[in-house]
Model the fold of this input.
Amino acid sequence: MLQEPLKFAVIGCGALARGQHIPNIAKSSKTVLHTCCDLSDEALKECKEVHGARHISKDWEAAVKNPDIDAICLATTEKLRLPVIKLAAEYGKPMYVEKPLATSLEEVYEIQKVVNESGIPFCVGHNRRCSPAMIDAQRIFRQQMDHPEKCLWRWDREGDDRPARDDNGVPSFSCRINDDWFSWKSWVFDKTQAPHGPMLFEMTHFTDICNWFLNNDPVEVVAMETGMLNHAIIVKYSGGAVATLNLTGNGTFGYPKELYEAFGNGSAVVCDHMCEVRTAGIASAPAKTTYPFLKDRHPDVGTQGGISGWLEKKAAACKEAAETGDQTLQMTAEPDKGHAHAMDNFVDEILGNGPVVCGVDSSVMATRVAFAAIKSAKEGRIVKMSEI
Done:
C-alpha cells in the first residue's frame, strides 16, 4: 500500500526556510507544503505564489493544532522554539527543527525533556549528516575505526621491536571552516537575537560532525577566539580522540568553505567541501570520489568535477559577478549539504522506514560542546563537559 505524502506546516519562513526547507518540501514526493506561517506578508506571498503553499497563516498555534497537518518544520529564530515544540509534543506532531535548539542551556534541556517524554519523532537540522559525501566519508571512517583494515604498504620501521602504545590507532579529527563575514545578515550582530554569536549558531553544525565521526563522549573542551570572526577549539573525547575546529569569518567564498579530515588506525578519510572524498591507507576504499553539484550555472566548465572542477566553476562565476556587478552570480555549483535529503530521511523516520536522522539527544550534546567552547574562550581555561 502506497503511503500518502505527509502534510507539513512550516513555521518561520525566513531566508533559510524559503531557500531550502519550503522548496524542498514542495518538490518532494514524500511531502506536501500544506501551510506556511510567518508574520511577514511578503514572505507569505512568496510561499504561496512561488512555492505553491496550499495555505498561509500568521497563527502558528492554529497550524500546530490543525488535524490535517501531519508534521511541523520549525525554522523560526531561537526566540520562538520551546512554546512551539511544547504544543507540537502535546498534539503528537513530529518536528524538524532548525539548529541551534536554543540560546540557553536551560531551554535546551527543557526541549530535550519535552521531546523525550512525548516520544514524538524529532529531527534537528544538522543537515550535513545527510550530505552524500559526508555519509560516505563517515561510513568509511567508522568502518576503519571499528574493523581496521591492515595497510600492506605501511612502513613498520621497528616491526616486532615497536613499543606498545595505549593510544595506537586512536582517531584525530580536523574541521576547517572558511567563511566571509561580509555576507552575514544583520541579526548576527544583535546580541538579543544571537547572544553567543557564531560560537553557537554556527559551531553546533561542526561539533555535531565531530561527535558523529568520533562516536564517543566529549569530556573536555578548550577554545580561543578573537571577537566574532576567528575561533580555535579542541575537544577531547573519553576514548582519547581529539577534534580540532578552526573557524574563520575573514575568509573568501572563492575558496571551498569546509574541509574535514579524519585520521586513525593508519588511515586518512578527507571530505573536501562535500564535493570530493579522498582516502589513503584503506585498500578497499576508493582513493577519490566526486559528487554532483547543485545549481551549476557553468556545466561546461570544470567538467572533471570534484575540488578542481569546483574551483574552475567558481572562478568563472566570480568573473561573471565582477563583470556584471551582480555579486550573487558568484554562487554556483554549490555542494550538496544534505538539506533535502535530511527532510526526506526524516519522513522515512516518521513512517518507521528509516533510522533516526539527528535526534534531540545528539543535538543537545553538540550544543553542550558549543557552550563549553563559549565558556572556555570567555574564562581562558579548559572546561570539562561535566560543568555544562
About this structure: Residues 360-379 form the longest helix (20 residues). The domain at 6-120 is CATH 3.40.50.720 (Rossmann fold). The chain has eleven helices and 15 strands. The longest strand covers residues 218-226.
